[in-house]
Amino acid sequence: xxxxxxxxxxxxxxxxxxxxxxxxxxxxxxxxxxxxxxxxxxxxxxxxxxxxxxxxxxxxxxxxxxxxxxxxxxxxxxxxxxxxxxxxxxxxxxxxxxxxxxxxxxxxxxxxxxxxxxxxxxxxxxxxxxxxxxxxxxxxxxxxxxxxxxxxxxxxxxxxxxxxxxxxxxxxxxxxxxxxxxxxxxxxxxxxxxxxxxxxxxxxxxxxxxxxxxxx
Length: 216
Hints:
Blueprint: E1 8-11, H1 22-32, E2 36-39, H2 47-61, E3 67-71, H3 74-80, E4 84-86, H4 94-101, E5 106-111, H5 114-121, E6 127-130, H6 147-157, E7 162-165, H7 173-178, E8 183-186, H8 188-191, H9 196-215
Parallel strand pairs: 1-2, 1-8, 2-3, 3-4, 4-5, 5-6, 6-7, 7-8
């Protein structure tokens, strides 16, 4: 069975802080109510180190319902027993990733504009990571910020779920969900906080509050 996509993704980019490891951040995000944890490591680690860390993260989350997503590296996901991967523009193509990981893997793609989103959505991805919506601290040469209107244009153009990313804060969650995003992916507003579990809970509460209003 394919892992659930969920609405709250926490990305463990450990380069933005030196207090918590990837494994610790995964546990704290799970404690705060995250649906998914994405393992992102952009430093020049060896493949062995990436696999070992991903394996430890998978084990830390094994007793939870939280989905672990490997960023960029299909080989790392396979070696660590991770059933989800998010692919960037320069990563392995989706068709090859799907053949390697199988039909029950969760695969995400990346988009920054409507034409790119349409191209990615036409592949065998399960969701699109769209951004940066408001900018980003996690990339040295980011794509242009979309804003809420740019995000809305993409969500209206594609039928696959969209996860919004890029300087997301809890007070922006409602606007992003109203714009059609299925959920949000958060980095610095969680991992750079003194208490990442509490910061995750703020996002969880914001999403749940929006869902309650929609269901009323």
